[in-house]
Amino acid sequence: MKRKYIPYIILLLLICWHTVLYAQDRFPRPEFESGYVYPTDQLALQRAQGWQYVDVAVLILALSAAVWLAIYKRSREGLVWLSVFSLAYFGFYREGCICAVGSVQNVALALFNNGYSIPLTALLFFIIPLLFALAFGRVFCAGVCPLGAIQELTGFIPVKLPKPVESIMAAVPFIYLTAAVLFAATGNQFIICRYDPFVGIFRLNATYTMIIFGALLLLAGIFINRPYCRYLCPYGVLLSIFSRFAGKHLSITPAECTECRLCEEACPYDAILPSISIISSENPGKARKRFIIYLLLIPFFTAAGALVFYNLAPSLASINRDVRLAKEIRNEKVTGVEAVSKAAVAFKEAGKTEKELFAGEMKIIERFRKASPWAGAFLGLSLGISLVSLTTKRSRIGYKPHQGKCYSCGRCFKYCPVEVKN
Predict the structure, then answer these.
(1) What is the pLDDT of residue 122?
(2) In whole angstroms, what is the distance from residue 138 CA to residue 405 CA?
(3) Cα separations in angstroms, 123 against 16, 106, 117, 181, 256
(4) Which residue in 165, 163, 278, 237 sits closest to 405, CA to CA?
(5) Whole-prediction pTM value?
(6) CA atoms of 8 and 14, how far apart (whole Å)
(7) Share of the chain above pLDDT 90, in %
(8) SS3 helix, strand, coil % of the chain, rounded to 5?
(9) Is residue 138 a contact partner of residue 407, using CB atoms and an 8 Å limit?
């Protein structure tokens, strides 16, 4: 058996073993006729504080190992094994919680709500990967994030998407991040956790729709590497921004690039920047003019985004169940059709007045009106900066990774003849 297949066999065993453990609990408990009484506490106790700090220590050690393997050791095989470990520990053992991806919501809730105190471990899981990204690039994505690890281990036949499709899909994580921060900051839902496609696989207790969603992503990931990381992950937006300023980053070649172009198609994420010497040069006058136009459009996009989201506030507030209930009760009064949903029935049985319900609805909508413009401004600003970045070209010699898009996975190592010689 070839060694390269061993990590994938381990992945299969992890999934199968987790399924067996789940199956042990899914059958009805036996009936006792001896007067046996089940204990009242049937839920597992919350993980002790000390063990939570063990998770933080494991995170730091795993990130440090990723730095060594990606930048100094330059070992793709080592990164794969690290992915297996992270998937086993942070994924199946810790069941995907707590994770850096979901911690975005804890931070947003803490920043905009005085009544919420963020757990220190959640804050550390949010900050530490960003600090490593600022220093060494996206090593968290390389082999530490369990969501990325499970996808990396299933990427067998990488296929590149057309660049226009790639560009459009790359905007989705910004929208997802904006929505996640907005809904968390207004005290409504943690949509990242609720719609996480892989936590259902880690725990085997999610809705069938989410398990199917995760399975479909893994199937798509056979051809389109890391679909969740590239086209959905909100935390990836922050990692990409921090990684652009990394002091030290993974390099494609361990020595001076010979510009052989063998690595040109190696990266499934289109994160390899070619040498500036082979790029067709655009007329400097036209490039400068386009740069100025895009730069002047940034304030317009920012203001437009803020205005659009301000007007969308009542619709966005519908994510709150009290707002939906108020609309249902109001619709009952207007149309005469009785509201029969569980929430409406419970509201009528509780004896609360419609005045209280509608007053609460207006408070929630008002909160969204205050927060939504900031969300829209962020999206508009991001769009403007993205357009400006398309008009700027830095002088570079040899092939280099795009520090924002590169996942530090090491797939490009084996394509470099300089690497082979060493």
Answers:
(1) 92
(2) 9
(3) 33, 8, 10, 15, 40
(4) 237
(5) 0.84
(6) 10
(7) 49
(8) 65, 0, 35
(9) yes
